[in-house]
Amino acid sequence: DPYGWLESAEEKLDYTYITDDTVAVTWEKRMILPPVGLVMQRSEAGQWEVLLPTRLPVVSRVMPQTPEEYAVWGSLVKVFDNLAVDLKTDIEEGRVATMEDLSRRAGERAFPVAVLVVYAYSRLMEERGGD
Which tens digit of pLDDT belongs to each residue from 74-120? Predict the structure, then answer.
């Protein structure tokens, strides 16, 4: 029961203001996901949104910077979107009976294609002089 777990753990989850519109989410008064943290910022519409740590040096080096790099990232997203659609079909048609079956099928289908996409991205990173 994930919702029951969330309700029982509600007292452990908190936040600390960084600025007036930015907070760090904490668990038992400690930072979540050290050393990056889980940071949220209030949008202009007043909604709280999770900020991805794209400005950290390690992360910023691998973030896409050219149209070609964005296209490869888009391909990776498409791989996982297609995987979700295929796995949903497998479940609905009874070809998957357990979570173990689902996990195995996900790995079998996604791994070969994802490896090719990651390889293509690494080649683009080499061309621009990234790590």
Answer: 999 999 999 999 999 999 999 998 999 999 999 999 999 999 999 99
Token representation of residue 125: 């990173």
Cα–Cα distance for residue pair 106/87, rounded to 1 Å: 7
* pLDDT tens track for 38-63: 889 999 999 999 988 777 777 788 88
How far is 127 from 59, CA to CA, in rounded Å? 18
72 in Cβ contact with 124 (< 8 Å): yes
Residue 37: its pLDDT value, please?
77
> What is the C-alpha separation between 31 and 118, in angstroms, rounded?
30
Asked if 15 and 40 count as a contact pair (C-beta separation under 8 A), the reply is yes
Distance CA 106, CA 83 (A): 7
CA proximity to 130, closest of 65, 61, 28, 39? 61
Find all residues with CB under 8 Å of 18, minimum gap 6, and list them.
Answer: 24, 39
SS (H, E, C) 54-68: CCCHHHHHHCCCCHH
